[in-house]
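Service request form, structural biology core

Requester: graduate student, group of Dr. S.
Request type: structure prediction, single chain
Budget code: on file
Notes: please return the result as structure tokens.

Sequence provided:
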Amino acid sequence: MTPPDTSGSRWSDLDRPPLNAPALRRALVRPDGLWTSLDVVANTGSTNTDLAAADGPEGAVLVAEEQSAARGRLDRTWSAPPRSGLFFSVRLTPGPDVPADRWGWLPLLAGVATASALARAAGVDTSLKWPNDLLVTVDGVERKTGGILAERAGDSVVVGIGVNVSLRAAELPVPTAGSLALAGAGRLDRDPLLRAVLRSLEDWYTTWRGVGGDSAACRLHEAYTAGCATLGRTVRAELPGDRALVGEAVAVDGDGRLVLATADGVQQPVDAGDIVHLRPASSEE
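Core staff response, request fulfilled:
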């Protein structure tokens, strides 16, 4: 990892100033809180890879101003200009309080926490495409502005979150991508946005762990369903083994799986795969 460049002023790049690591630590790392450390690096390959290899305590947060080998779901790459977004990973260790078969809710929990925090802090409507892509609306079209990747690391789960904040149209990696700036966000300062997301994640995770990972008891299931833009739409699920399933997304079940109602009347749960929105919910018959 390359240490942050501290040779210049924080305001040397007025459009994209660096994160203020000492201020973030003062705001977020508390003796009675979830976050136990917070480090900001100028550049690294992948914060998920680094944090998983570090084998540290629960609550470690690693933030990168730029990632050169960031990974999304299904081994997709994720690229963005330096200081243009939030790129970070956290280590969570549910331990014996939460049965392992409920850990699959962690990426969905992170999606709810991130989407709700950005909606409040950035002032832009943010929704979720199952399981945990972050969507915003740009010029009337849904665009992906962020994503979440959760990976097991021993007795922990490392959750990586990437959000495009200030990307301009010419900087988008693919035409279907978006950013908070392009969605008309009222705030693009990454320091308060990161604080908001980490505080929201701490609140949701602490509550979820406190009820043994019961997604209904902590209202996580309800919140996810309310914020999921996939429900009510006709979608194509691209499944492992080059298979595909088309149907209406009718529910998210108690295990966090997307339930599709197919044309032959079968309700099929999907627990892995890529979801393509075929038509907006408003156009459904």
